[in-house]
Amino acid sequence: MNVIGFKEAKCRNCYKCVRTCEVKAISVKNEQAQIMNEKCILCGHCLEACPQNAKTFISDLDKVKGYLKDKIPTILSLAPSYLGILKYKTPGQVITALMKLGFSMVRETAEGAVFVTEEYEKLLTAGTMENIITTCCPSVNDLIEIYYPNLTKYLAPVDSPMIAHGKLIRKELGHNVKIVFLGPCISKKREAEGDPRTVGFVDAVINFPEVEQWLKEENIDIMKQEDTLPHNPNPMVNRLYPISSGVLSSVVASGKSPDNYRKFYVHGIRNCIELFQSMERGEVSGCFIEADICNGGCIKGSAVDRDSISRFKVKLDFEEAVPKKPVTDPAFYGRAGDISFHKIFLNRSPKDPLPSEEEIKHILSKIGKTKPEDELNCGACGYVSCREKAIAVYQGKAELTMCIPYMHEKARSMANVVLDTTPNIIILTDSDLKIVEFNGAAEAYFHMPRAKAREMYLYEIIDHTYFLEVLNTHNPIMGKKVEYPEQGLVTLQNIVYVQEQDAVLGIFQDITEEEEKAKQAYKIKIDTIEMAQKVIDKQMMVAQEIAGLLGETTAETKVTLTKLRDTILYDGTQQPDKKNDKA
Fold first, then answer.
1. Integer Cα distance of 155 and 133 in angstroms
2. Among residues 269, 295, 303, which one has the least CA distance to residue 58?
């Protein structure tokens, strides 16, 4: 099941979550990070690390509000860490505030912890296990089942306090009620709703920040509430479970377990991993170990604002407020009846394919790592070594492009190729018009080495007027023709403002040859027009002369032909009618 939600649009190739994830349960595909649920131990570190809030906890809050809206009797199992996380004057104010949200009962999860402590005491008394690792933390259980399966034999075969409490409430109140766990941990959600070994005893899981916001929306101020006792007998020392050494304190307080095991606690994922690696090497034996993924215990859980809580202060306050006395009332234990708090742990290790040495070398060669010295092992991709990254690529968890040094070098080399091979002049200046980039074409045209140019201001080399205009207005100048007579150069310039760097980029196209050709074409055009005009003028003069001559000869011809006609028509005997003579 999904416990951590993911927003693809916000993932920006930073790989911070991969670097943060100690078990590398995050894959990157199509440049987007994805949680691998079957490998994730739900420590919550990626939620904290993601700078874009692309990963979010999938909440049960609406489901819980739905129970209350539908008038379904809903019991709240309240993790004892509330004593160190929520703000109140007296603990009873918290109970009152939660009851006002609509819960039928508010019972402390520490009530279930009493029975877990009893099971641990039985294991210690039996003394049959070489080592005993507490199983209150589902993230620790996942870490061992998935990544250190040889150590499952050391996991105490006991339910967590949350599941034990759910079983107790279910036995007492039946299946017509809903049971909701309120705590500081996101991994409890999968334990309650996604693990077939424990599903059905807790219906929903919510966390303290969600409830604080809910109380705020309902205008319920914890500090202004009256005291109400929780709906359970006093669990005594078992309220210490959420702080470091709290489980050990609860077990020792009973005085029932023999001193046949060395007892210590380990908190924090790195410390847990180091311990488990040591145990795999057979370096630890005869120990009862309280293990928790979160530094400082559950009070610094994955679903709380860890920065706002001092685990040292809370530990001191807890130990001062909670008496280290065991539950001795037989009636308390008698309520469990025949409930089994036994849990079996399994080997859930992934069966990922492993590449051969040749396949690793082939993958490394694709990112320019052909020699051992090429393997920087910088960890920028999230993996501790280039070889581990190559293995992850082979297994489909990572992409070649996650290698930051390789991509940087590739981008830089590609940029240099473009700068050095383009025939266009490229000049980049900063906000003071100091030259930042001066490509090969600029060197050739302005007879200035790049190194020297980058020590100068633009106005020391060429007129900076248009660059200054773009810098001040942020408006681009496109297609501007600018001449540099000293260089015999005519350019077509595009000058733009680069907002991210507060810089100005100029790209000049050499159009000197085109301009020369245009001038020659224009000269030819003018010469042609002048020649044409001379021809026209000459032709007009000839035409006028011809017209004059034609006018005289035409009149003479008319007279002669008229006379000839008359002679033929009238034979000289009859005179023509002058009115009808139109010849």
1. 5
2. 303
What are the tens digits of pLDDT across the range 522-545? 888 888 878 877 877 787 787 777
Q: What tokens appear for 287 in the block?
A: 């120990």
Rounded distance, CA 26 to CA 20, Å? Answer: 10
Asked whether 505 and 428 are in contact (CB, 8 A), the reply is yes
Residue 187 to residue 190: CA distance in whole angstroms: 6
Residue closest to 260 by CA, chosen among 130, 157, 151 = 130
- The per-type count for the chain, helices as H runs and strands as E runs, is 21, 16
Q: 566 - beta bridge partners?
A: none
Phi (first) and psi of residue 55, to 5 degrees = -110, 130
**Residue 287, H or E segment:** strand 287-292
| The amino acid at 185 | C
Structural element, H or E, at residue 6: strand 4-6
- Maximum CA pair distance of the chain? 173
Q: Which phi and psi (to 5°) does residue 407 adopt?
A: -65, -35
Cβ–Cβ under 8 Å, residues 136 and 161: yes
Q: What is the pTM of this model?
A: 0.72
Q: Could you tell me how many residues make up the chain?
A: 583
* DSSP H helical ranges for 42-160: 45-49, 61-69, 82-85, 91-100, 110-126, 138-147
Residue listed under structure tokens 């407020």? 321
Compute the distance between CA of residue 270 and CA of residue 55 in angstroms, rounded to an integer.
22
- φ, ψ dihedrals at 321, nearest 5°: -85, -30
CA-based nearest residue to 315, from 391, 242, 417, 209: 242
SS3 helix, strand, coil % of the chain, rounded to 5?
A: 50, 15, 35
Q: How far apart are CA 329 and CA 335, in angstroms?
A: 11
Q: How many CB atoms lie within 10 A of CB 114?
A: 27
pLDDT digits (tens, 9 = 90+) for 35-68: 999 999 999 988 888 887 777 889 999 999 999 9
Q: Which residues on adjacent β-strands are paired with residue 29?
A: 32
Give backbone dihedrals phi and psi of 240, rounded to 5 degrees, phi first.
-85, -5
Distance CA 509, CA 504 (A): 17
Q: What's the rounded Cα separation, in Å, for the pair 569 and 339? A: 152
Cα–Cα dist 84/7, whole Å: 32
Residue 128's contacts (CB-CB under 8 Å, 6 or more residues apart) are none
CB 458 within 8 A of CB 467: yes
Of 183, 36, 162, the closest CA to residue 111 belongs to 162
Tokens encoding 105: 């009962």
Q: In what order do the strands lie in the sheet with 435-438?
A: 435-438, 425-429, 503-510, 489-498, 477-484
Mapped onto helix, strand or coil, the DSSP state of residue 21 is coil
Q: How far apart are CA 282 and CA 280, in angstroms?
A: 5
Q: What is the pLDDT of residues 81-100, one digit of tens each?
A: 999 999 999 999 999 999 99
CA distance 190 to 321: 32
